[in-house]
């Protein structure tokens, strides 16, 4: 651009830049009047509640000012709707509000004046030089410069040429000023986005920490049930079994024998249900032997034919294992209850530090997370582990579920 000044002059950028500076001058001057009126009124009425409200409203104009200034650059602008009265105090405590207020003061007190000088001074000077011959013809001796009339100077016929030559540096000046002004708008916008990005990162980390805490609590409950209630039920069932055998051998108290037999059966059923509950909370096999063994156990208990094929370099992170295990469990449940599947194929591998598990059944398809089949909860669980879930389930089948979860699914995800 520096090597072709005339190309710059003939392009649209100088004129777009000077237009941006001129509209910025009008924009800043208008807002200066608004801020001046509101602030002055607020100060004068500060002894009463109305004045305090006007001062607060003046501060609250900051984000709206930033939004309108962004709109001049055609940047995406977040909606700044009307706030409820109960939220105004919280609004005034936000960093974005005061950042916008400071930016507004900078523009209305200083920047618009600079824009006016940079845009108008060269523009008026160049216009006067180019129009000099016409002015000489119209005004004659009345057009004077420091005493003598302008037409007495021998150089006056060349003034339009000087004006055209001045257009080149003026164009660069306008482009530079408009670029700096636009950079200022983007800077205030980027500051807010950076803060929002940091908040989102912290939100993701806090969610991960919360999930880790839930997982620890889940394991504690499983351990307490396994080591406490389950062991007592086992002992009760054994005692009732021994008592039943003793009563049957003695041949007496048939009623008592029947009651003991019923109690023994109930204890066995309760023990079976408790083991299923413990397995649903967190299977011991998943902790002891890993994901592959846990999925094989699910396959053995499934009422349909399940074929598993895992090729993993080791054990992934606990969160990845837990997420995949419960996803497979949910998928098998859906395949039998809702899909009427007769066969399910489960494959797992590691690709680019990502645990990829595919679950495919030959059911009638039509699975939809919106239908409340547990898929939406599965999507949320996978997302919380930093992964994603892909579902293909056309009507008529087959249904294919693909899980992609970071191999080391830690809190950083």
UniProtKB/TrEMBL annotation:
CDD domains tied to this protein: HATPase_UhpB-NarQ-NarX-like (cd16917)
Top-rank lineage group of the source organism = Bacteria
GO MF terms on file?
Answer: ATP binding; phosphorelay sensor kinase activity; protein dimerization activity
Query: What Gene Ontology terms describe where this protein resides (cellular component)?
Result: membrane
Q: Which Pfam families match?
A: HisKA_3, Sensor
* TM spans (from-to): 20-39, 45-66, 101-134, 154-176
Q: Which residue intervals define the domain Signal transduction histidine kinase subgroup 3 dimerisation and phosphoacceptor in the entry?
A: 217-286
Q: Which reaction does it catalyse?
A: ATP + protein L-histidine = ADP + protein N-phospho-L-histidine
Give UniProt keywords alphabetically.
ATP-binding, Kinase, Membrane, Nucleotide-binding, Phosphoprotein, Transferase, Transmembrane, Transmembrane helix, Two-component regulatory system
The Putative sensor domain extends over 20-187
Q: What is its EC number?
A: 2.7.13.3
Q: Which InterPro entries match?
A: HATPase_C_sf, Put_sensor_dom, Sensor_HK_TwoCompSys, Sig_transdc_His_kin_sub3_dim/P
The name of this protein is: histidine kinase
Look up and give the organism this protein is from: Amycolatopsis marina
